[in-house]
From TrEMBL:
Pfam families: LytR_C, LytR_cpsA_psr. Belongs to the LytR/CpsA/Psr (LCP) family. It comes from the Bacteria. Keywords: Membrane, Transmembrane, Transmembrane helix. The lineage of its organism: Bacteria, Bacillati, Bacillota, Clostridia, Thermoanaerobacterales. This is LCP family protein required for cell wall assembly.
Length: 409
């Protein structure tokens, strides 16, 4: 019986790999669990919460949907056997992630890290972006995804509206024709469902939400008794279509944990941020501070640490344009306010005033706010200023006031 369970788990684990759907990744991660750390990159250090804690014996698994060498779907997932919960964080493929030496606009998307530097490049990018350690990876192709769904007899999904789309240029070519309503999708139609994005008002975010719903339906299907007779053929399908650095021993071990502690909750989330344009190309700009907070909660047991992550927080983002900033020079050094105001502008912040402070004896720099401490922290992080204070007497024309001190000469 134990052997049978191991095989069952392996199948399910592999299934999780089904990149086209966050489902596979979630499930896959369920069986995998352990500690994590940080990664580095040539960006400004930002205080971060450290992920993965050895005490909970969890593993963070990176799931990648491979479409002819492109990462069409990216998830990080983990299974907390003590809480009996699956955590899954989806990372939009258009996430803005500039890398040293890669200067073309299209190379500044996180999916380019996979196409140009393969799984190691993507793994490093995700670790840097989230401030966590990725323990293992699972890669599944579109063909593998379809075979897995067909092997388990399809997945029941509620298609929210008619989906019709054709793209002969896509890799592979994309032809979608699904009718609205509750239905069992076979492999081909399931792939159409998880790839469809053009009918959602939120674009790729809408597609990710649909993938997560598919994931939940998938997990429900593969955890029912009806899946047992299909385990042998499923194991064969997985062995042909899944690439992973997990060993058979790892898979069996974590799979058993999954069986013994069947997840009661599946918590899904999307990397916080918003879409925007830069260099005439659309990107998904991450709110780095919130991203690291969410990553810590999901993959680090919500515990803060003093570790440093090199997340690319200090990069241009249209989100910053919603923050109105006044910059004052609190020293006798000419041009300091303009210097740091220009830096904020280059990062997208809305600088509404540049002037001298009333006094010029500030030994340290300060960031003040009268409305939103989160906005103040963003500005402080951008300029590496440690002093952030609330001051209700500030000018209401700005969200944040910066006073540059001697420490910024």
């Amino acid at each position: 019986m134990n052997k049978f369970f191991k095989i069952s788990i392996f199948v399910i684990l592999g299934i999780a790999i089904s990149i086209g759907t966050g489902i596979f990744m979630y499930y896959r991660n369920l069986n995998v669990v352990k500690p994590a750390n940080n990664s580095n990159d040539n960006t400004t250090p930002v205080k971060s919460v450290k992920q993965n804690d050895n005490s909970s014996d969890k593993k963070n698994i990176l799931f990648v949907g491979d479409a002819d060498g492109l990462s069409d779907t990216i998830f990080v997932a983990t299974f907390d056997k003590d809480k009996k919960e699956i955590e899954m964080l989806s990372i939009p493929r258009d996430t803005y992630y500039p890398r040293p030496g890669y200067n073309n606009p299209s190379e500044k998307k996180i999916n380019a890290a996979y196409s140009e530097q393969k799984i190691d490049g993507l793994k490093n990018a995700v670790e840097d972006l989230l401030g966590i350690k990725i323990d293992n990876y699972v890669i599944l192709t579109y063909d593998g995804f379809k075979e897995i769904i067909d092997t388990i007899g399809g997945v029941e999904v509620n298609v929210p509206f008619n989906m019709k789309y054709d793209d002969n240029v896509a890799k592979p070519p994309l032809h979608i024709n699904l009718k609205k309503g509750l239905q069992v999708l076979d492999g081909e139609k399931a792939l159409q469902f998880v790839r469809y994005r053009h009918g959602y008002t939120e674009g790729d975010i809408g597609r990710i939400n649909a993938q997560q719903e598919f994931l939940k339906a998938f997990i429900k299907k593969v955890t029912t008794p009806s899946i047992l007779p299909k385990i042998p053929s499923l194991a064969i399908t997985l062995s042909k279509n899944v690439r992973t650095d997990l060993t058979t021993k790892d898979i069996a071990s974590y799979a058993l944990d999954f069986v013994k502690n069947k997840p009661q909750n599946i918590n899904t989330s999307i990397l916080p941020g918003e879409g925007g344009y830069m260099d005439n190309l659309s990107y998904y700009f991450v709110d780095a501070q919130k991203a690291m907070e969410i990553a810590s909660e999901m993959f680090g047991n919500g515990q803060n640490s003093n570790s440093i992550s090199t997340v690319s927080q200090v990069t241009y983002s249209p989100i910053n344009n919603t923050i109105k900033v006044e910059v004052f020079n609190g020293t006798t050094v000419q041009g300091l306010a303009t210097k740091y105001a220009n830096k904020l502008k280059s990062l997208g912040f809305n600088v509404v005033k540049i002037a001298n402070a009333k006094t010029k004896d500030y030994s340290e720099s300060f960031v003040y706010t009268n409305s939103n401490i989160d906005k103040a922290n963003k500005v402080a992080n951008a300029l590496s200023i440690k002093n952030v204070l609330n001051d209700e007497s500030l000018d209401k024309n700005a969200d944040v006031v910066v006073i540059i001190g001697e420490d910024k000469k």
